[in-house]
Amino acid sequence: MTDAMQVFDRTLVRRRRDKAAAGVGAVAPILQAAAEHLLDRLDDTTHRFSRALDIGGRGVVAPLLKARGIETVVSADLSSRMAALSGGLPVAADEEWLPFAPESFDLIVASLSLHWVNDLPGALVQLRRALKPDGLFLASLPALGTLQPLREALGAAEAELRGGISPRISPFPELRDGASLLQRAGFALPVADRDRLELRYRTPLALLRDLRAAGEGNATLARDGRIPPRALFPLALSRLAEQGEEIPVTLEMLVLTGWSPAPTQQQPARPGSANARLADALGTVERSAGERSRPH
After folding, report:
1. Which of 26, 46, 79, 132 could cross-link 213 (Cys pair, CB 3.0–4.6 Å)?
2. Average pLDDT for residues 270-278, to the nearest whole number?
3. Measured on CA atoms in the order 96, 97, 102, 107, is the torsion positive or negative?
């Protein structure tokens, strides 16, 4: 992996998840709600799955998969402590170097767990290879717009105190990035869409406590290593508090759905193979390119 692809400090990510394992239950309702939003996609298929891989589910995904009748659930996490709490067969594994043999699973679920991966296209290739033919991959990642008020408040406070800003919240992908990521990784029938959770906090400190409990502290390599000014967080949080009695937080989620290629899957029709004209279906007159319509 080139230095240009190194965005996150993976060792720091693991240490933070190790530390968060003891208190991750505090944010279980949020993690579970996000997982349920993602797993609702399983209701759209008639496939029945028997062996699933849960990537970074933090104790909420594996129980939900088992409740759906999936016999075997393997739970992998960068943190061995977090994996031990997962609810499935625990495996400490790096998402960038997965230890699973090809065609090991027929379902892979990654709920809010791939956004700290440096080589996301490479990780998706490995996940696709770990799927059996016609296996399903489901993932959600925090998307652009998540924690935007906090990002802006921290940036404004730091600019005021230091005359510049440094990265304090992870960069998040956009919706348009999703389908291309799946296509590059070799998934069939790729779909990227958007979902959201609306959260409200009584105080800005409660939001920061939840981020810490989930192991979501700043782990960007470009972070400022200096001790922040003493007034930085009080100033930023006071600006958040100005929004009202409650702090609204939107968790924007990029949802990815893709299938491992298989000969039995539905294929797109060949160009020119249609047996009906679109103009007839729409009740319009077909015209050649560049031809102007005439007024009635």
Report:
1. 26
2. 61
3. negative
